[in-house]
Each structure stands twice: as structure tokens, then as C-alpha cells.
Design a protein that fits this description.
Oligomer: homodimer
Radius of gyration of chain A: 19 Å
Shape of chain A: globular
CATH topology of chain A: Farnesyl Diphosphate Synthase
Order of helices and strands of chain A: HHHHEEHHHHHHHHHHHH
Largest interface: A-B, 45 and 45 residues
Largest sheet of chain A: 2 strands, antiparallel
CATH architecture of chain A: Orthogonal Bundle
CATH class of chain A: Mainly Alpha
Helix content of chain A: over 70%
Number of strands of chain A: 2
């Protein structure tokens, strides 16, 4: 059993990082600086990690191409983070000031476009089928951002809509990485499906926990202030459950639908959520997805890479990594 | 001799338009609406037109794939227009209100990302060499936006820097279309180079004339108020020439470097420019590029497609199309 989910691929993740740093070099120093600001600020590298593990878990053994594609997924992910911060008005990300705050909206917008292009460039050799998988995932990201915007400050957002939003914005990009890795690694159609199914469910669990941490975390561990989803009017699973909880749910509705929320509003909402069983119920939902992810790996034969994937899905709920 | 530059490919340009409209369909209606807002508002379709003419001029005769790629170039171009308008704060584009003004910055930003992805998706079959050409052109667009930002409101911008900016933002994307078209059409390396050279010079001439029209045009023909480059502090060729013109150049410098320019400032600057020979000198520079474009076509054998390319380069200076 590996000591951590990414132990079997730790060297390759370093190569992915080196490649990313190489790919974001630009004759305009500012573009490189903004890119490294977001890329150098950490992140769990789950997207490239899942792509690499999927590749090896089906027997892939010449990782040069999958390292390039893993870098592409992380670069595209960074592009969306920069643009998301502009759209959400978030001040900090991964514990550092958001790119648009530091460099200006115009520069951050262009840097996001630059990173999109650099990411897609790395996928140029893949051929139409795999490019389609990646582009469709990126399309879903954009669509789910619009969907999320439609339900901003809407206390009646159905849980199904929430699940559709996080599927598009988080789960499908991770799924695309797994499918690409499994395909390049020579996996059978059944194995590609299995790893795609694994990654989709992993992504759902991951995002639900992210949304729980927005309430239970603190600025040190989150890299941003707690309660941001609440402030931005984003309907997350814990908030949706709480808003339909009866009793204090009515008070929470009033706070949630306010256009400008004060620090006191946030504290009141967080305190309320911490007193209920709603966070536990949300984690239970994440556990369901996590279990589905592990179960999906059945057709994959045992290896340290499969163990890495299993470990990641198991630990994602307690975010012990 | 064709009646207009795009006559030999007018049916195919319609197919490109149909394909674009098909490709921007989204399950989120708003994304389709924003996309069609910019795409339906006209534009000269120079990018797809040059790609199609280049394809046929070297003997390409199965246009299905080049139609897809031509659509991709126009879609990516539309993405950059939407993001540029956010960055420049322009109110109108092609005679209609800018997308971000109508739909909001957040939605326009996401729609631009959506269009980028849809464009790149259409290039998925191309293979690494051609994807590199397209991605490098997109990289240059981002880099030249940053370069342009560095020289905003700078009255000492050298002409060379201006030429580098318009090369990256306008000429290289058109060049990429020509090279892609010529390659897919089965052109020899010499023909691909020749058509690339043609398109690069065409793009330079086109942008210089665009910058002249910003001064001589009116809102009806421009689709936006005149003097926008001046207001935004963008150093264009006529402005750079005027700022170094001695005499009234000093007064113009004062106006150009103001952060907030009034309507009177714009009128004064435009009137001044109209009284000098600077616009004629700028057009002369565009004519040089136009001539170089036509000359570059020497290795291409005669056909209505070559005639279309020639006509486009000749007419670009008087913008008679």
C-alpha cells in the first residue's frame, strides 16, 4: 500500500510541474508572472494526479505523453481559477491574493486566455476523440458557471441543480483526465469507462467536501476566508439543506438572499450550520460518491496505482491529504 | 476576375457561418445568445475567407475540413472580441452594444471562454503541427494585448512597437489561417510560406487602415464612435506619427496622456489629425504592406482564388468591401 495517494506518481507529478513552468514562459514577463502566481501557489494537483494514475493503472508504461496532457489539465484548471476569481470577486485563493487583485482585471483576463491556449496546445497530438473529451469538459465548465449564475442567491435551488453544477464545474474535468489517461495507457473500453466513472464520482465527493469546508474551515486551512459561498450567494449542498430545514431555515433564507452580507451575517449563518446535523449529512452524501468511485474500480486489476486511486477516494471525505 | 474578393468562396463562407451557428449551440441558452450576439453582428469574415482562398489556391478540392477550421478561426476571433471589449471598456462593437454591456461582465467573460473552447475543439483533428500554428497565433494575441497595455497612454511609443503589437494581435492570426489552409490544401512548403507571408502583410495593412478609420470614420460606418483608440490611450500609427510631428504634436501629447478625455479633447485631436498629412502617410504605410502581400503570391499559380486574394490585398487600403 502506498503511503499517500500520489506516492506512486510523485516523480511524474514533479515532471508535470516542471513542464507547466516551462509551458507558461512568455516573451511578456507579466504573463509568466501571473501564471506562476496561480500555479506556484500550490493546489492539490488532483487533476494531473488522477490522469497519471489512470494511465498506469491500465498498464501504460511510457509516460511522456500523459505527462504533457496532465500538465495541460492543470494549466486549463489554472485558467479557470483566474477567470472564476474575477467573476466571483474573491480576494484570496490558496492563501495568496487573487491574480486580478494583484495584477488588475485586464491582465488577469488575458493571462487566463493565455493559459487556456497553452493548455490546448499541449493536447494537439491527441486526435479528435480525446480533444473532444477535453473540450466537452471545458464546455461543461462554462455551462455550469452560467447555470450557477442563474441560481445565485436563490434559496429554492433544488439539490439536483446543485449536483449538475458541481458535475460540470469539477467532476467532468477530472473525469476527462481519467478517460484520457486510461485511453493513452491502452486501457480497454471497459477500463476507460470504469476510470471515468471513478473520477466523476471522486469529483462530486471532492466538491461537496470543498463546500462543507467553506463552512467548517478557517482562513489558514482554506487559503481564503470561510463562508465565501454564502457571501457570494452560491447555493451549496449544506446551504440548500439548511435553507429547507424549517425553523431557523427561514432566518437563514433572509440572510442568504441579502445582496450585501455583513461579517455578522456570515458568522450567524455559519454558527447556525455548525449546530445542525447538516454538515454531517453533506459529508454522508460525499461518502456515497466516494464509495461509488471505489466500487467503479472493480474492473481494474490490483497495482500500486489502483491503490493510489482508492486511497484518494477514501481520504477525500476527510481531506487527509 | 471575380467581382469581389470573396466571390469564389461565397458558398463556402455561408457553410462556415452555418457551422459556427451550429457549434455555438449550448444547453445554456445564454451562452448561445451571447455568441450569436457577436457572431450575428456581421464582421468581414476575413479570417475564414483567407483560409478558404489559401486552401483552394494550392489546389485543395475537398473543402469539408477547411470549412471546419475556418469556422474555428472565426469563433476564436469572436472570443477575443468579447474579452477585448471587457478590457477596453468599449460600449459598441459592429454597431451593436458590446456583449459585456448587454449581458454583464461575468457572463461575457464565460461566453468568451466557451467560444475559445468551441474553436479549439474544431481543430482537434489537425495534428500537432497545425495546432501549434493556431495556438502560437493565439499566444501572440495575448502577448500583444499585454504589450499594448504596457504602452497605454505612452506618447513615446516607437513605431516598431506599434508594428509588433498589430502583428501579434491581427496579422499572425490571419497568417495562421492562411498557413493552415495552404497545408490542408496540399500546398508545397514554398506555397505555404508564400501564403503565410501574404496573410501576414495583409493583416498589417488591414490593422493600419482600421486605425486610420478610427479617426476618419463615423459611427455609422465604424459601428462604434470615432476616436476610440485615442480615448483608450492606444498608440496607433497615425497617433504616433502625430505625436512626433512637432508644433501641435506637443498639444496632442497633452491630450493623449490625459487619463479621462472629454468629447472636446477627441474632437480637437481628430480635427488636428485631419489637417495634417499624417493619415495619408499612414495609408502609404498600409499600401506598402498591401503591395508586399500581393508580391508574396508570386509562387502561386493563377486561379480565381489567387485573384480573390489579390483583390482583397489591393482593396484593403481603401476598404472597398
Amino acid at each position: 500500500m502506498p503511503l499517500s495517494w500520489d506516492e506512486p506518481i510523485s516523480n511524474e507529478l514533479k515532471m508535470v510541474d516542471d513542464m507547466i513552468r516551462h509551458e507558461v514562459q512568455s516573451q511578456e514577463d507579466l504573463l509568466t508572472e501571473i501564471s506562476l502566481h496561480i500555479i506556484g501557489s500550490g493546489g492539490k494537483r488532483i487533476r494531473p494526479g488522477v490522469a497519471l494514475l489512470a494511465y498506469h493503472s491500465v498498464g501504460g508504461d511510457d509516460p511522456e505523453r500523459i505527462i504533457g496532457i496532465s500538465a495541460a489539465f492543470e494549466i486549463i484548471h489554472s485558467a479557470t481559477l483566474i477567470h472564476d476569481d474575477i467573476n466571483d470577486g474573491g480576494d484570496t485563493r490558496r492563501g495568496v491574493v487573487a491574480a486580478y487583485r494583484k495584477f488588475g482585471v485586464q491582465q488577469a483576463l488575458i493571462a487566463g486566455d493565455f493559459l487556456f491556449v497553452r493548455g490546448f496546445r499541449l493536447g494537439g497530438f491527441l486526435g479528435q476523440d480525446l480533444v473532444d473529451i477535453i473540450a466537452d469538459a471545458c464546455t461543461s465548465m462554462a455551462e455550469s458557471e452560467i447555470l450557477q449564475g442563474r441560481y445565485e442567491n436563490d434559496p429554492s435551488t433544488p439539490v439536483d441543480v446543485y449536483l449538475e453544477i458541481i458535475k460540470g464545474k469539477t467532476a467532468m474535468p477530472i473525469e476527462a483526465g481519467a478517460r484520457t489517461g486510461a485511453t493513452l495507457g491502452g486501457g480497454s473500453p471497459e477500463q476507460v469507462s470504469a476510470l471515468g466513472e471513478y473520477a466523476l464520482n471522486l469529483g462530486m465527493a471532492f466538491q461537496i467536501i470543498d463546500d462543507v469546508l467553506d463552512i467548517t474551515g478557517n482562513e489558514d486551512t482554506l487559503g481564503k476566508p470561510r463562508g465565501m459561498d454564502f457571501i457570494e450567494g452560491k447555493p451549496t449542498l449544506p446551504l440548500i439543506l439548511a435553507l429547507n430545514h424549517g425553523g431557523n431555515g427561514t432566518r437563514l433564507r433572509k440572510l442568504f438572499t441579502k445582496d450585501e452580507k455583513t461579517e455578522e451575517d456570515v458568522d450567524e449563518a455559519v454558527e447556525y450550520l455548525l449546530q445542525t446535523d447538516i454538515l454531517e449529512r453533506s459529508k454522508e452524501k460525499a461518502r456515497e460518491f466516494s464509495k461509488r468511485a471505489v466500487d467503479a474500480l472493480d474492473p481494474i486489476s490490483e497495482s500500486e496505482y489502483k491503490q493510489g486511486l482508492t486511497l484518494l477516494a477514501e481520504k477525500v471525505v476527510d481531506r487527509e491529504f
